[in-house]
Amino acid sequence: MNRTLMLLGSFFGLTAVIIGAFATHGLEPLLTTKQLSSFETGVKYQIYHAFLLLFLSLSQKILPRQKRILLYMICLGIVLFSGSIYGLATNQYSSFDFTTIALITPVGGSLLIISWMMLFVYSFKHKEE
């Protein structure tokens, strides 16, 4: 489980840097300030949660079953939240109309919020030795 968390945390961190660099150098002339700001929000949340996955991979306090649940919640949250923001910000350059699925953005955000709440509860319940 720790290896999977480390690999996915590294993957999401890597892709956040690549996507952020692409936005800065490739999309900046094409997007409005508001669209670019929205896109950057997606990148920030992706990298924050990549760090969370890396933290979980190193944590000895969270049980493997709890880590697995958090892994699924965080990964799905990143894909839905950040992914939909990327699509919405660049919608005019896509053949798919991302506004038709715009409601998945708050679903992804909710999954990320719930993940943090679950981590809090898991940590609260953990007894110090």
Topology, please?
Blueprint: H1 2-27, H2 33-58, H3 64-89, H4 104-125
Helix pairs in contact: 1-2, 2-3, 3-4
Protein architecture, described:
The protein has one domain (2-125). It is built from four helices and no strands. The protein has helices at residues 2-27, 33-58, 64-89, 104-125. Helix 1 (2-27) runs antiparallel to helix 2, helix 2 (33-58) runs antiparallel to helix 3 (64-89) and helix 3 (64-89) runs antiparallel to helix 4 (104-125). It is elongated, with a radius of gyration of 16 Å. The model has no long low-confidence stretch (mean pLDDT 92).
Compact summary:
The protein is an all-alpha fold. Helices cover 78% and strands 0% of the residues. The mean pLDDT is 92.
Average pLDDT across residues?
Answer: 92
The best one-word shape is elongated
Q: Span from first to last CA?
A: 23 Å
Give the percentage of residues in beta strands: under 5%
Spatial extent as radius of gyration? 16 Å
How many individual domains? 1
Number of continuous helical runs: 4
- Find the structural class using helix and strand composition: mainly alpha
Order of helices and strands: HHHH
Helicity, in percent?
over 70%
